[in-house]
C-alpha cells in the first residue's frame, strides 16, 4: 500500500488556510511570523508583511499576512543582518534532551491543513514554513564569536531579495533576469522507478511505474489532470540559494520524522550541493586559518576529502584518538584542557562522522555522542556532524532480522547530535549521495537560524543552490511517488542490502586474511572495513618504516589487480609519522564474488610481505 503522504493521495482534500488553527504561520529561519495581530521587530519598528513560500486558501487565493516581526539574522528570507534577535544563554550541565519525533500521520495532517503549496519561480523559502509548532522551546545561542571574518562580512544578494516582491498578486516583473520557460528545450521528463516495497532492479524493470514531470503542471488548477506543485518551468529556472520550497518542505519534514530536529525553536535547513560542497562552506563560515590561526579537530583518521578541504584554507588539523566507538571523549577533553596557546588559537570546531566513520567504520553510541557533546559545551566547541551513512546502521554479523515497519526502523537509529543540541552549536550535514544517487549532488544542512542564514549568504554568491534537474527529479521520486513512508522503506531496504554486503566481506576476511597479523571489527554502519596490520611482526620492522611497509603491500595489491585504500591517506595530522599500519576496504559496489576474490588477493599480498 502506498504512503498516504504522496502528493497524489492528498489531492481532492479541500486545502485549508495557511495559518494553523493553533497559531500563526511561522517562518522560523527568517525570524518572521505572520498572524492577525500587529507585531513589531526587535527594534520596535513595524515592517510590512513578507511570506517565504505561501499556500492557497480554500478559495484558491494566495495567503497574505498582516504584519510581521523580524527577529534578526534569519535564513533565506528578508534580512542579511547576522546580528539581532534574542540571545538566550544556556548553562552547561543537566541532562541533555531525548530524541523527539513527529509521526507520518502528523505530517500528513499538517499538509492537509495547509493545502497546496504554491511556490513559483525563485520563490524564497525556509524550514519555518513547514515545520511543526515550536511554542515553548528556547532559542539557540548566538555564535558571532565563532564566525570567520569572511562569513561575518557577507551581505544578502540584492537580486535574490527582490524576488520576495513576486509574491504580490498581479506583480509584473521586469527585475530579475529569469529566462522565459517557453524557450527551455525540454517539455517533459519521464522516470521509471520502483514501487515500494519492491525495490530490486528486476522488480523495477518488470513492475515499476513511470512518473512524468511536465513544464507547466504547477500552473494548472489543483484538480486538473496532471496538476503538480513543482514543474520544469520552475525547476529549470533560477532559484533561491536555499533550494526549492518543494524539496525544502520534504527535507524539513524528514528531519522531524527521523528525530533529527534540534530541541530549540529557531532551527532551519538549507539544501546544499552535496555534503562536500556543504563542508567547504561550513569550514569557511567558522574557520579562519591565515587570520586567526584556527585549527580543526577531527578523528585521528578522518575523511581524506575533509582534510584536503581544510588544507588550502590554511586551517590546521588536530586528530583526536579513537577506539572501537570512534572519537574518545576523554582524549578530546584532555586535548582541549591542556591546549598550548603556543600552537595557536584553541580549537573551536570539531568535524566528526559519527555513524560508519570514514575510514574506520566506527559508530558512536548514544552515550558516546552525549559525552562528546558535553565536552564541546564545556570548551565552547562547534560540532560539524557529517552523516552520509546514518541510515546504513546495521546489526551484528549474522543477525539478518527483517524490521517489521518504519517505526521500528526509526526507533533503532542512534540519536543524532542535533537531537541533543540544546545550544545550537551543531551543524548537521545530510546527503542523498549514499542513499539515493551521488550524481544528484543534493544534500542539506540542519542548524540554528543564524548559521543557516550565514550559510545561505555564501551560497548566493557561490553555487546558488543545487541543480534544478536534481531537485525536481528527487521531489518527483521522494515526495510525489513514494512519500515519506515509501522513502523510509527504501532506506530500510538499503540497510538490508548493505548489511548483506558487509557480511560477505566479513566472511571473506575470516577466510583469506592472515589472522596472526591482521585484525578487524566488522562495522555496524556505513560502507567500510578497517584493517589493522601488526607492523611490529613484520620481518623488516627494524629496518623499514611503517610507511614503507604500507607502500610495499599497496604496490603488491596493485600488481595483483586489486585496489585498496592506504591508511596513511586518512591521517588527520599528515606531518606526523605513522603510529600504525592500516588499510581501508569497501563493500559498497563490488559483487560478492569480486569482493571475495579481492580480499583473497589482499591476503596474498600481506602474506608475501610478511613472508608467511
TrEMBL record:
<feature type="region of interest" description="Disordered">
    <location>
        <begin position="1"/>
        <end position="45"/>
    </location>
</feature>
<dbReference type="GO" id="GO:0019878">
    <property type="term" value="P:lysine biosynthetic process via aminoadipic acid"/>
</dbReference>
<dbReference type="InterPro" id="IPR050859">
    <property type="entry name" value="Class-I_PLP-dep_aminotransf"/>
</dbReference>
<feature type="domain" description="Aminotransferase class I/classII large">
    <location>
        <begin position="264"/>
        <end position="602"/>
    </location>
</feature>
<dbReference type="GO" id="GO:0008793">
    <property type="term" value="F:aromatic-amino-acid transaminase activity"/>
</dbReference>
<keyword id="KW-0963">Cytoplasm</keyword>
<dbReference type="InterPro" id="IPR015421">
    <property type="entry name" value="PyrdxlP-dep_Trfase_major"/>
</dbReference>
<feature type="region of interest" description="Disordered">
    <location>
        <begin position="65"/>
        <end position="86"/>
    </location>
</feature>
<dbReference type="InterPro" id="IPR004839">
    <property type="entry name" value="Aminotransferase_I/II_large"/>
</dbReference>
<dbReference type="InterPro" id="IPR015424">
    <property type="entry name" value="PyrdxlP-dep_Trfase"/>
</dbReference>
<keyword id="KW-0808">Transferase</keyword>
<dbReference type="GO" id="GO:0005737">
    <property type="term" value="C:cytoplasm"/>
</dbReference>
<keyword id="KW-0032">Aminotransferase</keyword>
<keyword id="KW-0663">Pyridoxal phosphate</keyword>
<protein>
    <recommendedName>
        <fullName>aromatic-amino-acid transaminase</fullName>
        <ecNumber>2.6.1.57</ecNumber>
    </recommendedName>
</protein>
<dbReference type="GO" id="GO:0030170">
    <property type="term" value="F:pyridoxal phosphate binding"/>
</dbReference>
<dbReference type="GO" id="GO:0047536">
    <property type="term" value="F:2-aminoadipate transaminase activity"/>
</dbReference>
<dbReference type="GO" id="GO:0006571">
    <property type="term" value="P:tyrosine biosynthetic process"/>
</dbReference>
<comment type="similarity">
    <text>Belongs to the class-I pyridoxal-phosphate-dependent aminotransferase family.</text>
</comment>
<dbReference type="GO" id="GO:0009074">
    <property type="term" value="P:aromatic amino acid family catabolic process"/>
</dbReference>
<feature type="compositionally biased region" description="Low complexity">
    <location>
        <begin position="19"/>
        <end position="31"/>
    </location>
</feature>
<feature type="compositionally biased region" description="Gly residues">
    <location>
        <begin position="68"/>
        <end position="86"/>
    </location>
</feature>
<dbReference type="Pfam" id="PF00155">
    <property type="entry name" value="Aminotran_1_2"/>
</dbReference>
